[in-house]
Amino acid sequence: MPTAWGTRRKRRSKRKKRTSAINDAAAAVRGSTAVRHGEDDEDQGEAKKRNPGTTEQLQDGDGEDVVSSAPSSLLCEPYIPDDEEYNLELYEAFELEPLKIKFEEKIGRQMQMPTLQNFMPISCLAMDPQLAPIRERGTNAVLSAAKFLLGLSSSIGGKPLLRCSGFWIDWDDESKTGTIFTTAHLIRSNNSEFDVWLGQDEYDPNAKVMVHLLDDTIVEAHLLYYQVHYDIALFSARVDSPVQFPSFNDRVQYAQEVFVLGRDEIFDLRITHGRVEYLNPDVFQRYHFMFSSKTDANQYDDGGLVIDLDGKVVGMVNISSLGSFIPCSILLKCLDLWRKYGHITRPHLGFKFLAIKFLDPLYIEKIWRKYNIDDGLIVNEVADGSNGEMLGIRRGDIISCFNGEQISTTVELENLLLDICKDFDRTNQPSVEVDVVIKVFNTRKSRWRELHLTTNISEHGEVVARGTYSSFHFGIKDFSFGGT
Question: Coil, strand, or helix at residue 293?
């Protein structure tokens, strides 16, 4: 029967032999790395010759083409046996040896493969339990729309300007050139960041724009046209294969569920869920916007898609404020004008508006009690020196009809203005004016009037700046007060 001393001696002897063997193996690794790498290359070359059937074309030493279907080697982690005695030298040998480094490098490469991601839930469709009832339908809609959603980046003089999104709208088979619709913010060199109605934003049509395609290739885009009032731009880019186009829905409804799609900083898909909100643009925003209830807007979504649950495009994101987008009813009219005339024009009214229907019901009821009116557009600003000001229209007045049509929202008004322009070609006309018949309620005198407002047709951004009274000297300061 073995004694305890004898058992311990046998264990020590066994550990010593095992450690010695592993150390010898580690030393052999150090001395044979270069040879082994050369042998691996030869083995891989032979395997590629022996295994035809894939599309990877190589050349052997005689210049003949060979085809490789050899699988990559299995991932094997260096093994260090468990032992009662911690051997620091042994562990350090494996930590510093090429086998360990090679193992970690291969792990890193594999983790870049789409099929070997950690698959942690990221998007709202995977993380929000409230979206479970529309998970499958929403996923199908998003994947369908993602096929024509692109990443875009711009620079001026080598200095990065913006990364955003865009989407295909056309492709010519003969020239192998596609047309991209996106935001003009992509080439905006100076952002006033205050009141867009003052017309102080600046754009650089010579900015360099790159398109990040779905196959991870990058091509340069060329500016076709940009329109500063709507902040939209069209670019062309060469692409050899046909591209997919969106289907549009120009009848987006308030409270409708939508998804907002964009491409992030590494041009992966961004997905945000929301509903179309009952909101008026604020006084510093253009009034052709609608809004979704999404809460994490960023620059990457700019120029991206707003889609319905069928994958149809209902608008294009415009990051002028949280959740703002241009509805398809306006986008499609703009595209029609550009295709017909090469530019996009609209009448400049000289007003800013608020829709009564989007106010809190408390205020709608108060307006009704005072004026017996519960629909129409409230004049929120009148441009200084405009025809509207000369006709006596003031802030707080209500306009209910344009050219005989009842108007309830500013989007309805913008669609009407674009319809007026569909028969006006300004190519050879420096200035075109058109009269618009408006029905106005004077809230100060509580009476209706029908007025003929002369407007200028222009493709430039409309400027609406409030007038000021003369400055008064008071103490050591001058004060200017806005007119009403």
Answer: coil
Torsion of CA 120, 122, 124, 125, to 10 degrees: -50
Answer yes or no: is pLDDT of 267 > 80: yes
Evaluate if residue 76 carries a pLDDT over 80: no
Q: How many Cβ atoms are within 10 Å of 97's Cβ, its own excluded?
A: 18
Report phi then psi at 434, rounded to 5. -145, 140
Q: How far apart are CA 153 and CA 161, in angstroms?
A: 7
* Helical pair 88-96 and 98-110, crossing angle rounded to 10 deg: 50
pTM of the model: 0.78
DSSP state of 57: E
| Burial of residue 173 (number of CB atoms within 10 Å: 0-12, 13-18, 19+) | exposed
CA 214, 217, 220 angle in degrees (round to 5)?
A: 105
230 contacts 183 by C-beta, under 8 angstroms = no
Any idea what the Cα angle at residue 184 is, between residues 178 and 188, rounded to 5°? 130
For residue 329, give the 3-state DSSP assignment.
helix
Model confidence over 8-56: pLDDT tens digits?
455 555 555 555 554 554 454 444 444 444 444 444 444 444 444 444 4
Question: Taking CA 45 as the corner, what is the angle to CA 40 and CA 50, rounded to the nearest 5 degrees?
Answer: 120
Measure the CA angle with vertex 16, ends 14 and 22; round to 5°: 105
Q: Are 413 and 402 in contact (CB under 8 A)?
A: yes
Going from the C-alpha of 178 to that of each of 98, 205, 242, 254, 355, the distances in angstroms are: 48, 19, 8, 33, 38
The two three-digit tokens of residue 342, written as one number: 């090469």
Quote the CA–CA distance of 355 and 363 in Å, as a whole number: 12
Supply 303's token pair.
């120029």
Dist. CA 184–CA 161, nearest whole Å: 12
